[in-house]
Fold this protein.
Amino acid sequence: MPLRSRLPLVSCLLLLAAPAAGLRAKPFTVPLYDGPPPDAALSADPEVVIQKEGDPIVRVTHVQSPDLRVFLPPPEKANGTAVVICPGGAYRILAIDHEGWQIAQWLNTQGVAGIVLKYRVSDKMGDAYQHPVPLLDARQAVRLTRSKAAEWGLDPQRIGIMGFSAGGHLASTALTLADKPLPGEDPAALATGKHRPDFGVLVYPVISLVDPWAHRGSGQILLGDAATEDARRALSTHLHVTASTPPTFLVATRDDAAVPPQNSLAFYQAMLQAGVDGELHSWEKGGHGFGMLPSPHPVTTEWPRQLAAWLGSRGLLQKRPAANQGAQ
């Protein structure tokens, strides 16, 4: 049966899932906005956390209180790098554990702060938070994380964004549409550029909302049934990669039947054409939605190792001099 609660239940589930070492730096939650979230009425249904018996996936939907769940690494391991994490779920739910909390805990083992974004989604087709609501939340998450750099021991020039499936689409919009003004966004906040990620990680991401390999479910929720071809192209992020797109690491599997690997391939091809640094890693088997769930396929253990190697190659796992930490 569904479990209905808000932060207390989330915290309980999180502590049950956390490894013993993580108890030294207890995660905490901060609201995404000081007041009411912009540009959309709250979901008519109460926010709910659901975990069905025997199902390893924890789902959050009808989000009414977008927030950040902050996982800071132990001080002796911390290197100042942080990643805002966008769980997937077709813009209907958030798979917040294996594509959120567990990812943050793994990042902590690399000395990286994991910042899990609970962005606005709803599981009712007629009650969806359509574009630009999720992107407003993603931008605010990067902006807020950067503003807390001194308090959280972060380097404001090493703030990345990471996303899975539809969360990968959201992260890719944050990476490619940073110059685009959005309804409900403070123009002064946009002008600062503090919403721009410094790097990106896209894991089995939705990239295209147009045929032939569009993920129609995500597009339908995000833009509605009546969306035009132009509206879908405007949020098909491989079409918006430029030389200013941050370095990006991509993960795909050939047998992904939910989000075809052509999504990742198209984004990477656009990166090559624009001269954007990054890597694409593709495995033959693994399907979709694996995150950090146990699996017989090598991808589930190998993609984090490859990501760590890439982060290390870019100097993102090395500590910087203390004078640089938290500098604005």
Remarks:
- The CA atoms of residues 146 and 156 lie 5 Å apart.
